[in-house]
Amino acid sequence: MNDLRAQASAANLTGRHLLGIEGLSVLEIQALLARSSYFADILTGKTKDDSLSGILRGISVVNLFFENSTRTRVSFEVAAKHLGASVLNLSASGSSVKKGETLIDTAVTLNAMHPDILVIRHRHAGTPLLLSKHVDASVINAGDGRHEHPTQALLDALTIQRKCGQIAGLKIAICGDVANSRVARSNLYLLGALGADVHFVSPSTLLPAGIDQFGVPVHTSLETGIKDADIVMMLRLQTERMQGREIPSQHEYFNLFGLNMDKLMRAAPNALVMHPGPMNRGVEIDSAIADNAEKSLIYTQVEMGVAARMACLEALAQHAERTR
Amino acid sequence: MSQKILFINAHILCPEQKLDQQGWLLAEDGIIRGVGSNSDPLPEAKDIAKIDCKGDILAPGLVDMRVQSGDPGAEHLETLTSLKQAAAHGGITSMAVLPSTEPVIDTAAMIDSLQLRAGRIDGPSIYCYGAMTKELEDDQMAELGMMAAAGACAFASGTLSIQNAQTMRRIMTYAAMLDKAVIHHCQDTDLTGEGDMNEGETSTRLGMLGQPAAAEIVILKRDIELARLTGAQYHASHISTAGAVAAIRQAKKEGVKITADTAPPYFMLNELSVSGYDAACKLNPPLRTETDRQAIIEGLQDGTIDAIASDHVPVNLDMKAQPFTQASTGASGIELLLAMTIKLVKTGTISWLRAFELTSQFPAKILKLEAGSLKPGSRADLVQINPDQSWIIQGRAFKSLSRITPFEGQPVEGQVNGLWVGGVQIALEP
């Protein structure tokens, strides 16, 4: 698999929207990653491309965030601006959504202004799909409830690929609140498709129903689950999405499922740690690891996020240009 | 002067008399006077009106025991007039409406009012359930005795499931005194939480919270014990899980007075219908697994399940064009009960007689209604059906004001060509 190669032209996607990793082919994923890698080279100063800011000239991107987010929204905004697109940010708190307008009314109203790409985050699964049926723009899912967060999975894969050379054959343990995590689902599909040996680690009360049908090994002990892992990906404990008291206390959670240096010793000697952020320090991850520049890829992930989103925006903008 | 109608060339179906024959039926003044086969001589009289059924089925009209009305409180979703017209098109001659309206049907006065207003409109008969509890809240028993006296056919709770076992025990004890059935929706609300669909692999894949099958079974099993304790006539409504079928089968074996119904979505569809987040498929209880669907079909075949109801819930597009989680539950069903039941017959799943047992004879028996039979002396509630006429389900063509169905676009067979309530023919709008 030559997935390290940076691609000098836009990735081609069959669909008009990017609603999830499930449904993308391996070739599409590889094309997006290759193009992301090209943009990452530019962002990190390895190469230059003077035409960068002309790639999305004339393309309008609307960030429609119904759920609070800083890092993802800013990441999409920076990505769009690098490529020369015009960006409009809308958040639910500042919009007519608060005045009782229905979601579809909002979408149809926005559609009349002819944006090319809508980046949507919503707290309920399936909302980007629903809106995609009511707008002419291409829709990017920037996280929908517990369902998917495709650009997060792409940036995670990009981070791993650039650090480790390739993804196939790596043991990757995704640990924590799997039940409430869209990041876990998107990463399972993406990293699995690229040949990684993905494992889930979670307390039994935070495992989603039917997980045994997904073909992923599941562990209820962190020590066992991360044994010999090349990548330990910690998930945020989604207290805002939890339904009640799935765990006895954050204190016990940190004791049993929080990652500290001691537990990390079980992983492979050069294991790297990831986290989609924002982190709950002292709950799922110890600061000593989060801030350890040798072990932690957490800030690289943020950097790679911009590159991955540039590749996604560019790929979908091709559809906008084709329909003009 | 008496009015006599003679139906000839009919495929007569009457599960109570085990009749499945080509023949005739005579009604006089709204009462069935006789049924015969083609070898029996036709009754003759001067003033007789003849109706040639041309080989169509002539059966007791359907009795739909689970219907949500929009009136009172949500007339924009369904009026009594639209409900009656929709029911008539679906071959239904009697229906029992749930008490979960606004206001709740929890007093004798509410029953009087609804029956009076329903009686002014031509069409199928409307019977009322009385609410089990005041305002359909969880603790205080409603005035069941006075509602029974006003004509409540049984007691129900809409989609409220009584969580307090002591409250449920009292309702069942009191209803037994009144000789009325208790119709219950089984759902442990702690277990279902904010779940939007069946819990399992599919809900996890779709990123939605699930409702475990156990939520239905836990309450059902509690109720079975309470039925044993109180001797009440207990009826589990719209059951959806294999576990519920098994529990009812066992309880019947042990002599508990229990009956049950299900609705077409639970024997026609499974949770995979939700895969595109189509809110038309958001129901309560939720669509379950294929294993559950198969178990429901077995229950329909072996007698564990006694009735099929439409589970009609008026909803409009505003309530459904939403993210799945925010959309309302329920779907329009009253016009599809017959067609979906005919599908079971056409696929060889059940016989014609069993179909009318499930949709007419048994629901009438459970609710002690004067309906569901062609026996001489019975009220002439009749439906004439061409079982082979095919059509495509299109919500926008419904007579109901509620036009959202999980069966949109499906081909079905079975056309209602005539409907008589108490011997009076009901006009079917084209």
Give the rounded overall mean pLDDT of chain B: 97
At the first level of CATH, the class of chain B is Alpha Beta
The helix/strand order of chain A is HEHEHEHEHEHEEHEHHEHH
N- to C-terminal distance of chain A: 36 Å
Radius of gyration of chain B: 21 Å
Low-confidence blocks of residues of chain B: none
The shape of chain B is globular
Number of domains of chain B: 1
Mean pLDDT of chain A: 93
Cα gyration radius of chain A (Å): 19 Å
Unreliable stretches of chain A, pLDDT < 50, 5 or more residues?
none
The structure class of chain B reads: alpha/beta
- What name does CATH use for the topology of chain B? TIM Barrel
- Which architecture of chain B would the CATH scheme give at its second level? Alpha-Beta Barrel
Q: Which strand order do you get reading across the main beta sheet of chain A?
A: 7-6-5-8-9
Q: Specify the helix fraction band of chain B.
A: 25-40%
Topology overview:
The complex is a heterodimer of chains A (324) and B (430).
Chain A: H1 26-43, E1 60-65, H2 71-82, E2 86-91, H3 103-111, E3 117-122, H4 127-132, E4 138-144, H5 150-164, E5 171-175, H6 182-193, E6 197-201, E7 218-219, H7 222-225, E8 231-234, H8 250-257, H9 261-264, E9 272-274, H10 287-290, H11 298-323
Parallel strand pairs in A: 1-2, 1-3, 3-4, 5-6, 5-8, 6-7, 8-9
Helix pairs in contact in A: 1-5, 1-11, 2-11, 5-6, 5-11
Chain B: E1 4-14, E2 19-28, E3 31-37, E4 48-52, E5 57-60, E6 62-67, H1 80-89, E7 92-97, H2 108-119, E8 125-131, H3 144-150, E9 154-156, H4 165-177, E10 182-184, H5 189-192, E11 197-198, H6 201-206, E12 210-211, H7 214-230, E13 234-236, H8 242-253, E14 258-262, H9 264-268, H10 290-302, E15 307-308, H11 317-320, H12 337-346, H13 352-366, E16 382-392, E17 411-421, E18 424-425
Parallel strand pairs in B: 1-4, 1-5, 6-7, 7-8, 8-9, 10-13, 11-12, 13-14, 14-15
Antiparallel strand pairs in B: 1-2, 2-3, 5-16, 16-17, 17-18
Helix pairs in contact in B: 2-3, 4-7, 7-8, 8-10
